[in-house]
Specification:
Elements: H1 15-21, H2 26-39, H3 48-56, H4 64-73, H5 87-91, H6 134-139, H7 142-148, H8 152-163, H9 167-170, H10 177-197, H11 203-219, H12 224-247, H13 251-268, H14 271-287, H15 291-305, H16 311-327, H17 331-346, H18 362-375, H19 379-394, H20 400-416, H21 420-432, H22 440-453, H23 460-471
Helix pairs in contact: 2-3, 2-4, 7-8, 8-10, 8-11, 10-11, 10-12, 11-12, 12-13, 12-14, 13-14, 14-15, 14-16, 15-16, 16-17, 16-18, 18-19, 18-20, 19-20, 20-21, 20-22, 21-22, 21-23, 22-23
Organism: Streptomyces mimosae
InterPro entries: TPR-like_helical_dom_sf
Protein name: Tetratricopeptide repeat protein
Length: about 475
Amino acid sequence: MARSSSTSRTTTPNEAFRSLRGGLSPGEFAAAVRRAAREIGERVSCDARYVGRVEAGEIRCPNYAYERVFLHMFPGRTLTDLGFEPRQTVRGRGARAIPPPRAEPIPPHRTPRAFDGQRPSRHGRDAAPPGEHIHDTEEGDVLRRAFMTGGPAAIASLAALGSAPHASAAGRGRPGAAEVARVRQAVRDIRLLDDQHGALALYRPAGEALRTAYELLDTGAKRSAVDDELHSNTGELAISVGWLAHDSRRWVEARSYYAEALATARVGGDPALEAHAFCNTAFLARDTGRPREAVRAAQAGARAARQVGSERLRSLLALREAAGWAGMGDRGGTEQAIAQAQRAYERGEPPESPEWMTFFGDGEFASLEGQCWALLGDWRRAAECAGSAVEAARRDPHFARNIALYSAELAGCLARSGRPEEAAAVGSQTLDLMDQVRSTRITELLADTATRLHPARRDAGVAAFLERQRSGPV
């Protein structure tokens, strides 16, 4: 969620930080911060508003990503020297150690340098160097980034699983309950960190963890019960990695991972895993313009789900089917599937429902329904659903990514509904969340909204959003 200062605390302007800005405008200084971030492989969405909040004393201590950038810009200084308060004072607990920077040499065109207080060049210095791939920067040091965004314990399980000695190679015996538990924990940690921060930072370590899980699966457990559990959890891990690829717009990789999960489900005779794999396959088919495949995959998932006993799973699969019908322009089929989803959802959630379905609450239902109306071009109803999704998500701030996603969807619907001022306001609120969440899906939604709002750029609120979106994470 967007950070805000406490109403009961009097803020003290950060004069030390203001003096470091020198003669630069807040916007120019923000550009220098973003440029410095790229030099060390970081990404921050710093803008003039953020600089103003720091100088006003509203931000008493920056998050870990900004901390690294500021200390890079002003070498030899501490956060206290920059006018910030100690982290343990702000958060009420001891500060976590900052992991060291990555060991490999930094390419010559990105050699770190101290901030010199000069105005940024107008000849492209603030743009990424030619040939530099954003994904390489974002994911090049995943462990370090995960520590900075608040998930050190969770990401550690992915690293541990991905780097563990393989039983087959080490000759230490076949996998048992301990290995199954580690695979299961990796799945849970991916879901937790994705809910909090988005997919980009997790994709590579999650893929390493999956490779290790499949090696364990190939080795085989001594007991059939353990082997069944290993199959099930490895399949769930494949779906989780597939989702990270899906959310990062790596369509081919996502399709491959979902297919691996489906094969694992079929081999292991696991209907719950099969339903999950078909559910995600239907979602991917919709996103990649194959609505008929989305319908068929959702229906196949529904057949597998009959053996699971979860009404919520049936509801979700019905919404996946509805999106397929909407993609084909079949309003009647869409309405029928949505009604089916609503009936199943209202029956409640029995204990038999799969663990991975914790994300599917009121907000997600409203968002998925809204996406169906959007595919049909009914932007008024789509905006209503997206607004309901945002309200529901804000009641559970644990799902930071969902708040950002639903807000981005709402901004797009409002823009298409001819309500540019409201769209710009919601879009700006979404940008406030992007320091916490890294998702290609959300970034693309905001970019599309900005394009659609361009004709209304004379409005002050719209102009402010367009400037923030243009100068945000690059």
